[in-house]
Design goal:
The complex is a heterodimer of chains A (351) and B (600).
Chain A (H helix, E strand, L loop, with lengths): L37 H15 L7 E5 L3 H4 L9 E4 L5 H11 L4 E7 H6 L2 H9 L4 E7 L2 E2 L5 E2 L22 H7 L4 E6 L3 H13 L3 E7 L15 H7 E3 L1 E6 L14 E5 L5 E6 L9 H13 L3 E8 L6 H5 L11 H4 L3 H11 L1
Parallel strand pairs in A: 1-2, 1-3, 3-4, 4-8, 7-8, 9-13
Antiparallel strand pairs in A: 5-6, 7-13, 10-12, 11-12
Helix pairs in contact in A: 1-7, 3-5
Chain B lengths: L8 H7 L1 H5 L6 H9 L3 H12 L2 H7 L4 H4 L2 H4 L6 H11 L18 E5 L3 H10 L5 E5 L8 H4 L8 H12 L4 E3 L7 H6 L4 E4 L5 E2 L14 E3 H10 L8 E5 L3 H12 L4 E5 L11 H9 L4 E2 L2 E9 L2 E14 L5 E5 L5 E4 L2 E4 L3 E2 L33 E3 L2 H4 L4 H19 L11 E6 L1 E3 L2 E2 L18 H6 L11 H8 L7 E5 L9 H5 L5 E4 L4 H4 L14 E4 L7 E5 L8 H5 L5 E9 L3 H4 L9
Parallel strand pairs in B: 1-2, 1-4, 2-3, 4-16, 6-14, 7-8, 7-14, 8-9
Antiparallel strand pairs in B: 5-15, 10-11, 11-12, 11-13, 17-24, 18-19, 20-24, 21-23, 22-23
Classes of the chains: A alpha/beta (351), B alpha/beta (600).
The complex binds flavin-adenine dinucleotide, thiamine diphosphate, iron/sulfur cluster (SF4) (3 copies) and magnesium ion.
């Protein structure tokens, strides 16, 4: 743990976003995680994505469970709302918050233990309900905080630091998310910010349940040979299907792409996702093909990364439930107590 | 880019901006840390070894280190490096026992030094402890040169000059005062093994305009007037004084005038206020003493009433850029302006003069009548004669005189031992890790946000009453500690070992200054645009490290690194380390440990 205070000085040439903020303005407290932890890089990527999107920090709610990963919301967006909930309960707390105030941007931050072990059910329901959120799992294959026991995402046959082989099958959260109807599904690697930052940007801009599985090596307990979540293993087996550029606003796409190599997806709010294809046959709109593709490559020991599936026209939980358009805290007495006549009407409908 | 060769002594030296900028390469951060630790004597000795006159320079140095200080690139003002030097001098204990001893056994070589200013004294200090017999001749009664005769006592008290000149003279140096050397030929005939010329640039430029001769009684050449004030020959001036010129001499003239009866004292310069040669802090001090500075005025005539000076007439000019972008002063065409006064001090420049050097003794002079001197060895075209200080390349300052002195001493030592004077000894470099434990470093890496502290000044009314009352009072211990904390420890270097790096990005994420980038290699110009933050300061190097598994390179822009050590603190593998880099510029004494070290 670092005790030195991070100096306030910053590079004099640091770029500013539309709000006049530098990326330093999106930082939180100094991390208390082990030096080199992949989670810290994800923190860096979230900071970068929010800076690039010129998000107002007070419009964000960061919600997490328990674990090293779930501690990270303290290390980014120091001026946002936050709720560090109970182990595995981030999805429920987030769903509740979202129902109460649909105007905030929800960042759900969780770990593989938090989401695939104790919180598996919670994870599943928030995805199938289509909660409008960016759900990030910082996936290191172990319970880092409790000293490195295998989690439910550890691959069968992979070895613990002490040399014990994992005999259980792994849960692939990406595969489950696809199956449960997530409308934005991606996988990335903490050691590759050029891939990760635009994915987070696109997820934040997506309307509906966005799920990102980020492989994030635990340098203390899961970065050895025999691990399938180590820096070396992921770098060697990384199979990126595409590279993403996010173009916000109505600006035309000015980046030069070779013809036939790029697919542009326009999201609900006008954000354009320019996908440079690495795998020519991969189609981000085909949920079934994506699932097959993932399984095929997983069998070969490959880690498929990139934007795997997106449904640009997805609807969220509020649309499904036909809820009121305004956040509950903005409703006045008149809307909340519409009077006896309205009550009579409702009662009549139930008779 | 090729991976950086950090074993080249200059690479890390350049990162220590202040030390690199100091002509004598004083290890600035090292002495500032010692001041913070309350070890004033140690801080003093480090200075003494490099720059010979810490107490004097701590009050008067032109401080080329401060504009170079990295702190000035991350916030508004640099560390008060110069005034911290004075703190070391003010609070040290008696250091006499730590000074070198004169060897009982001399080496049989005799050196003559012409002039007793800082240049000659630096040479003598380096040579005397090695057994050289040094004889210093000066036309004045006391040593110190212009430090004593020119710099007013309210900036530099006599006691400080005495103390630091005596440290040197007490090394067994023979000082022959009141002895003007009138002939180099005669001196050469005295069979000294080598001669050092440190006679300075003693002539003040005059202003040959109408009225100069007629009103001569009240028109004084600045540097002559200042030395007369210093010797006590002059102790009054008229109520209304005009000082012509915009350099250090002008500033000292006007401030001295205010103390000798001048009530309405003005400085009038040809150039613009911004382009004046005086340092910003000198102008500030003058303005503070109610001395207005008028600019863009060219003196045309001294007006007088039957030989009694009545004032000066000026032509108004403005600055225009010519086709080549050079700045030119052209008349505005407005009517001339007259300023009334009782006395004028002419401080429009200083010149060298060598009337005592015969032109046929083997010393070549160039077309400006300056001796041809080698800027590295300080050798003239006569093998036995070396130059330094203002005598070598025209008027500079004390710290340059000292730097010249060190180099000349090495040359003289080599010359006296029949060695090639062009074969310069390499500096000694020591690099030591500062890591003590997982989160423990042997230097204070916390970055203090404090703004620069002002040095307390004597009350103006009191100061103006007495020309010998020192204006600056110096930092007290408390202020010195706080100012010292502003230093960024730029000599504690970030050292990268690529073969240990697992490319986890922890250092990139934590670095407060966005100094570190992992990327594909490229040409420098291209790399500079592809970093976390653009590297636009071309005077600062990029540190390139290779041996990474992904084939990328680590590129660190040295420009605004705070040396906070967070990169090393957050690196899981120790690929970054913080290592203190001490470079010991070789002086004659180390150089003489012959064959111990190879040449640079
Ligand atoms: C008004 C004024 C203010 C200054 N203020 C500063 C300042 O604040 N900070 C700073 O760094 N620099 C300052 N300088 C410049 C600085 O004083 C000089 O650059 C420095 O003293 C040069 O050192 P030197 O050893 O080369 O020569 P000098 O200091 O000039 O010493 C030369 C000595 O040689 C003697 N001499 C000359 N010819 C002969 C001869 N033929 N025989 C015997 N003796 C001889 C002279 O009398 C003199 O004592 C100032 C200069 C002036 C004029
Ligand atoms: C209800 C409950 N059960 C168990 C724990 C103990 N516990 C704390 S963190 C953790 C695992 C965290 O693993 P993961 O979510 O993968 O986070 P990581 O530390 O690996 O980032 C466990 C089991 C707990 N805090 N609460
Ligand atoms: S234990 Fe593992 S997951 Fe937790 S902080 Fe350390 S490296 Fe990161
Ligand atoms: S010491 Fe390291 S972390 Fe600190 S500013 Fe320099 S490169 Fe960045
Ligand atoms: S923190 Fe250390 S291991 Fe990680 S990228 Fe930086 S130098 Fe490499
Ligand atoms: Mg985990």
């Amino acid at each position: 743990m670092t005790y030195v205070v991070k100096p306030k000085f910053h590079h004099p040439e640091l770029p500013k976003n539309d709000l006049g903020y530098t990326h330093r303005d999106y930082e939180g407290k100094i991390s208390t995680l082990c030096a080199g932890c992949g989670h810290d890089s994800i923190t860096g990527a979230i900071i970068e994505a929010c800076f690039k999107l010129a998000i107002e920090p007070h419009r964000v709610a960061k919600i997490s469970g328990i674990g090293c990963s779930s501690k990270t919301p303290d290390y980014f967006l120091g001026n946002s709302h936050g709720f560090n909930s109970v182990h595995g309960r981030m999805p429920s707390v987030l769903t509740g918050a979202n129902l109460a105030n649909r105007d905030l941007i929800y960042l759900g931050v969780s770990g593989d233990g938090d989401s695939a072990s104790i919180g598996f059910g919670q994870f599943a329901h928030s995805i199938r309900r289509g909660v409008n959120m960016t759900y990030i799992v910082e996936n290191n294959g172990v319970y880092g905080l409790t000293k490195g026991q295998f989690s439910a995402t550890a691959d069968r046959g992979s070895k613990s630091k002490r040399g014990v082989t994992n005999t259980d099958s792994a849960i692939d959260l990406v595969g489950i998310a696809l199956q449960l109807g997530a409308s934005f599904v991606a996988r990335s690697f903490s050691g590759d910010k050029t891939q990760l930052v635009p994915i987070i940007e696109a997820a934040i801009k997506h309307n509906g349940a966005s799920f990102i599985d980020v492989i994030s090596p635990c340098v203390a307990f899961n970065n050895h040979t025999g691990s399938t979540k180590s820096f070396d293993y992921v770098r060697e087996h990384n199979e990126a299907v595409n590279r993403l550029d996010v173009i916000t606003g109505r600006a035309p796409i000015t980046v030069d792409y070779a013809p036939g190599t790029v697919q542009v997806v326009e999201q609900h709010d006008g954000t354009k996702l320019a996908l440079r294809k690495v795998d020519a046959d991969y189609d981000v709109h085909d949920r079934l093909a994506a699932m097959a593709f993932l399984q095929k490559h997983a069998a070969k020991g490959q880690v498929v990364t990139g934007l795997l599936y997106v449904d640009a026209d997805a609807e969220d939980l509020h649309a499904h439930l036909n809820t009121v358009a305004a956040p509950l805290n903005t409703l006045g007495e008149k809307e909340l107590c519409p009077g006896t006549a309205a009550l009579e009407k409702i009662n009549a409908a139930l008779r | 880019m090729k991976p950086t060769d950090i074993s080249a002594p200059d690479y890390f030296h350049k990162v220590v901006d202040c030390q690199w900028a100091c002509p004598a390469h004083t290890p600035v951060p090292e002495y500032i840390r010692l001041i913070a630790a309350g070890r004033y004597s140690d801080a003093y000795m480090i200075n003494w070894e490099s720059n010979v006159f810490p107490g004097i320079l701590g009050r008067t140095c032109d401080r080329p280190c401060e504009p170079a200080c990295r702190r000035g690139r991350v916030e508004k003002e640099p560390v008060a490096i110069c005034r911290l030097k004075r703190v070391a001098a003010d609070f040290k204990d008696d250091i006499k026992s730590r000074l070198p001893k004169t060897p009982a056994l001399k080496n049989g070589k005799r050196i003559a030094l012409v002039g007793g200013g800082p240049a000659s004294l630096a040479v003598a200090r380096d040579l005397a402890p090695m057994g050289y017999e040094c004889v210093v001749f000066d036309q004045d009664a006391k040593s110190g040169g212009m430090m004593r005769t020119q710099i007013p006592k309210f900036r530099l008290p006599e006691s400080v000059i005495d103390e630091e000149c005596n440290y040197i003279l007490d090394l067994g140096i023979e000082f022959v005062g009141n002895k003007r050397i009138d002939s180099l030929k005669a001196l050469l005939a005295e069979n000294f093994d080598a001669i050092f010329v440190g006679c300075g640039a003693p002539r003040g430029r005059d202003l040959d305009i109408p009225g100069r001769k007629e009103a001569a009684n009240n028109i004084h050449i600045g540097i002559d007037w200042l030395s007369n004030v210093s010797f006590g020959h002059i102790n009054a001036i008229g109520k209304r004084v005009i000082v012509l010129g915009g350099g250090n001499t002008a500033m000292d003239c006007c401030r001295s005038s205010r103390r000798l009866g001048g009530e309405d004292v003005k400085v009038i310069v040809r150039s613009g206020f911004e382009e004046m040669k005086a340092s910003p802090w000198e102008k500030e001090d003058a303005l503070h003493e109610d001395i207005p500075i008028f600019n863009f005025l060219v003196p045309k005539e001294f007006t007088h009433d039957n030989g009694k000076l009545t004032g000066v007439t000026f032509e108004k000019v403005k600055a225009v850029r010519d086709a080549k972008g050079r700045r030119d002063l052209v008349p505005t065409g407005e009517p001339e302006q007259h300023f009334a006064c009782d006395d004028v001090l002419v401080a429009v420049g200083q010149e060298n003069a060598f009337p005592w050097i015969e032109r046929d003794v083997g010393i070549e002079f160039d077309k400006w009548d300056m001796p041809k001197v080698d800027s590295k060895t300080m050798a003239s075209t006569h093998p036995k004669v070396f130059f330094g200080g203002d005598a070598a390349f025209g008027p500079k300052n004390i710290i340059w005189a000292v730097a010249h002195g060190h180099e000349a001493a090495i040359s003289i030592d080599k010359f006296c031992h029949d060695e090639d004077i062009n074969d310069r000894p390499a500096p000694q470099v020591k690099v030591t890790s500062q890591k003590m434990g997982i989160h423990e470093w042997s230097y204070d890496n916390e970055i203090a946000p404090d703004k620069r502290y002002r040095v307390p000044h004597r009350d103006k009314v009191v100061a103006l009453r007495d020309i010998k009352a020192e204006v600056e009072l110096g930092y007290d211990v408390e202020l010195a500690l706080r100012e010292a904390e502003r230093c960024l420890n730029c000599d504690v270097q970030t050292v990268f070992a690529g073969q240990l790096c697992i490319e986890c990005d922890a250092c990139v994420d934590i670095c407060p200054m966005d100094c570190i980038t992992f990327t594909a290699n490229g040409e420098q110009a291209d790399l500079r645009t592809r970093l976390q933050a653009p590297a636009k300061n071309l005077t600062q190097d990029l540190y390139v490290g290779d041996s990474l598994k992904t084939g990328r390179v680590m590129v660190k822009d040295e420009d605004v690194c705070l040396h906070c050590g967070l990169c090393a603190e957050r690196c899981p593998t120790g690929a970054w380390d913080m290592q203190k880099y001490l470079i010991d510029m070789t002086h004659a004494e180390q150089a003489c440990q012959r064959h111990a070290r190879s040449a640079a």
